[in-house]
């Protein structure tokens, strides 16, 4: 055993020893893993997994050939076997190999649902990035697919596994040192919204832009979009609420044991930076009503943070004290002159020296991702729900989407967790499904629209077994429009096959 293998083996042992018995996992098992979406955070997740388990990176998938090749080179350098993974530009072909134990899914948000459902059908266990979906129905379908196929699904909401946040939860909230908590403020003041307005251009040769767009509306290519800039557009994500609020809302729900909010109200818009090409809000507040508790979100991508030490975080207000938490640490301030407590994030640079040199790695987040991966592996071995199970990811994601819908409609939304509907608001319920029909060539699109449709009133229970349903067009359900009978338009249909099916349907009608 060389020094590197010794360090890795020792790290695995220390990590396992730190886990409670219910979270122990087989740290010698060589699991076969694939990654779909080889960008910044996909690689961050993958290489944290490599650090806590002797996995074999078997396959990688991305529609950017340059990003894919770079990820393959990095994977060969990081994994024990030094083998270069197979590479794919089509996730369906990768999953069809049926040679993976687990898959990590980290493309842009608008692709999460289709890929995750296909992965669940293929029989692998799944790590999927947050927010889990682009609309509410997608998330519901993903939960159904996970349960129907008996898959373990961990969502990349790793605040639930951040060591100092776990400590703060146990030390101050669970021990009652805050007393009655009636208000939690969650916030982000990072200047993270794109401010540029570059011209539209031809996509670079290394990017299959049609495949990248997938189920989203087709926009002219712009350098803001790829790589990493796509969150500037609501066509691909859910703005800063879907990116940053989802973390803090989910953390709050976990810390306080909360389920669904019963009412959501949000206001905001583009108030300051009106020159940018970005179409997400630069200012937004949202209130999540949990009966006798209010969780209030605020983001501004301009100005200064209310507390420069907490530009992104949460403040829990209790009648006995206040707790501030973030990815960088926590502060407990008791009422009545007690002793304040401060804790900084714990780095693990000596245990995992690769963290020191890995490009673009958020070093302060790496320990949280490793612990989250360990919980994922333990849950796979136990066949149990992980700490950030797909259902928890669905609740947090859908709540944020409902906040955006509230802002769009200009009114508060009362949510019925049992019926999974907005109470007494058909317009709001229509927004639970986004209209995201892929842009076809004009002649093909006209034939698609002209086809005879039939009402499809309930599809959720079937989504787990349908062959790759295109959730992007499920919005049509609420608008009196649905699918050609027994013909589901999916991304698995190439243009030739789609034309053939449309022609067959037309000839049948004639």
Nearest-angstrom radius of gyration? 23 Å
Largest sheet: spatial strand order: 14-13-12-11-7-10-9-8-15-16
Helix content: 25-40%
Largest sheet: 10 strands, mixed
Task: Give me the count of strands.
Answer: 16
* Principal-axis shape: globular
Query: How large is the share of residues in beta strands?
Result: 15-25%
Tell me the structural class. Answer: alpha/beta
The N- to C-terminal Cα distance equals: 73 Å
What is the residue-mean pLDDT, rounded to a whole number? 86
Spans of at least 5 consecutive residues whose pLDDT stays below 50 are: 1-22, 437-499, 505-510
Note the total helix count: 15
What can you tell me about this protein's structure?
The strands form two sheets. The chain has a ten-stranded mixed beta sheet. It starts with a helix and ends with a helix. Helix content is 35%, strand content 17%. The longest helix is centred in the C-terminal third of the chain and has 20 residues, at 390-409. It contains 15 helices and 16 strands.
